[in-house]
């Protein structure tokens, strides 16, 4: 940070004084103003000697942030946090210091704003995600955090010209991708527009300058037109007895640039540069004014939107209509009440700005549903980067509005599916969803929703989330809930497998059952956990099931500890367990019945089915993988890692079908695929996947199927049926190549 001489610092003293802020605090009680003054003095001392890039004392930045917060009429704790927001990060002030000086509310706000610079992260992106995670979680508990953060970013963008040019791109891109969408999501329209334009100015200065010049010329040409429209509208409304305030509105430079870029237009082709805002005393007046405007100018078909009846996700309410004005120029009109106008510009900040309580549109509850959902997501997501990916999904404010069967309106992101709707209703509804009806018709769960759809979710108590849902859900809440369930399921099954493996390993050592959960056995388990390095018995069992820890090694240690307590192995059991030619069989066999989900996987290289000879490979961290005993991949693994193989065996009556690979060589011709599929159906085999070689012009080609069969005998039946089918030359099972 550059250091300047004392005379220059003295010259900047006026900008760094509390008086610059105090003039904006007239809405606070004198006692609150005194609290803010105390925070200013503390921050001034903390930042003493620090300078900004332009040579001004650093304290001018916290004062400017607090001034913006004061514009939103936030309370004293928020103003104090704005003044202190860099104290912990830059000045060595601790949270305990702030707690002692200013109390818990202010300390929590500042802590929520502080970056996690003191922690070590493997990548810059990971550190950034962790910072945003902390900031967003603090926001979910107290929205003032994000308001202060946005004020901080706005002032930094306003003074970007003083920073090194090398930082412009990164900071401006971050502003466009993260902070501007958050401002929009919270309804802070004025801040959103300013952040976009400032970022555009520093990312693409040449284009910004060209568009500024073009807009200035257009403004000169259209000034008379806009004035004429305002006068005609005001006269029309006045004649009808409506007291209205008319405000001209200009499209921002960034939105003009985006429209030109997205639609490949020239500046002259952008015909909605200007708009007119009509502000009226109440909702009835808004609809009356809409009718009068449609009489005055011709409306453009398809360009009317009623956001009063159905507000946007961020609380925005207004009537939008585009009319053909004088000289055939399209002009967009926004018709709203004063309260709606305040919400449109200040969003969540209107909660403090407008103290009437539950006014039009209930904007005092702005954004709270989305903010609260951040906590729900955090409860199910422990990884910072994953959390941030969930949040970014929900930042886009474009929404579809759908109805529950009882007529309740729900807003979901564009492209949301039936599963997103189910999780938006309640986590349990999403978890147990099996089918859905949209507008009375049965639809797949992956169906996208459209405005006005009425959705009914059909649930079943035995149903659980499907991993395939992750491929199409759009909301962070649904994605995090599905992932959480799958992780929990994998852990439960791995723990059960671990208990089974440990019990078998103990039997191989001559111990019939592991010690129980009684208090007398607790010291034994505590000692074993110290040996394995696990915190709980459940964690140790999960590690054994995942292959992170050897069941045999843990069993031997437990037997040694039991022997120290006088418990001797059962000689008969020990003799029986070791009476085998293959040492791996001493652990007994894990029984495969197909009921396992994630703890036991069937290798896709050889696709074992009941009746095949099988081996179990306990991979490191991936659970038990089952191969056929003839599989070339398994043989290579056995050669390198023999001690990780355990014996597995098929149950007498598996509870489901299994996948098998089949290759069918056919004479190329019309209808051959249909005949092959019919033969499989006749043999009661379901086709899971079909692939074929790219040899359409050849006389013979291979069709590769993955089919569901009950066992090896069923597969033999399918292959016999195929070989008897017309046009089939050969049919056989796919075997992995060595």
Structural commentary:
- This protein has 29 helices and 19 strands.
- It is of the alpha+beta class.
- It has 5 domains: 151 residues, Hypothetical protein af1432 (Orthogonal Bundle), CATH 1.10.3210.10; 158 residues, Beta Polymerase, domain 2; 113 residues, Ubiquitin-like (UB roll); 166 residues, no CATH class; 76 residues, 2-Layer Sandwich (Alpha-Beta Plaits).
- The strands form 5 sheets. The protein has a 5-stranded mixed sheet with strand order 1-2-5-4-3. Strands 11-15-13-14-12 form a 5-stranded mixed sheet, sandwiched between helices. The protein has a 4-stranded antiparallel sheet with strand order 17-18-16-19, covered by helices on one side.
- The longest helix is centred in the first third of the chain and has 35 residues.
Portion of residues within helices:
40-55%
The largest sheet is: 5 strands, mixed
Q: Rounded to an integer, what's the Rg over CA atoms?
A: 34 Å
Strand content range: 15-25%
Rounded to the nearest angstrom, the distance between the terminal CA atoms is 63 Å
**Mean of the pLDDT scores?**
79
Keywords:
Ubiquitin-like (UB roll); five-stranded mixed β-sheet; globular; single chain; Hypothetical protein af1432; Beta Polymerase, domain 2; 19 strands; 738 residues; 16% strand; 5 domains; alpha+beta
Walk me through the topology.
Elements: H1 6-11, H2 19-22, H3 30-46, H4 60-71, H5 76-84, H6 87-90, H7 95-102, H8 104-113, H9 124-141, H10 144-158, H11 168-185, H12 189-203, H13 205-239, E1 245-250, H14 253-263, E2 274-280, H15 283-296, E3 298-306, E4 319-324, E5 330-337, H16 338-346, H17 350-353, H18 368-380, H19 384-394, E6 399-403, E7 409-413, H20 418-425, H21 427-431, E8 433-438, E9 441-443, E10 455-459, H22 476-508, H23 522-532, H24 537-545, H25 551-564, H26 571-578, E11 589-592, E12 600-602, E13 614-619, E14 623-628, H27 632-641, E15 645-650, E16 658-667, H28 672-682, E17 686-692, E18 700-709, H29 712-723, E19 728-733
Helix pairs in contact: 3-5, 4-5, 4-10, 5-8, 5-10, 7-8, 8-9, 8-10, 9-18, 9-19, 10-11, 10-12, 11-12, 12-13, 13-14, 13-15, 18-19, 18-22, 19-22, 22-24, 22-25
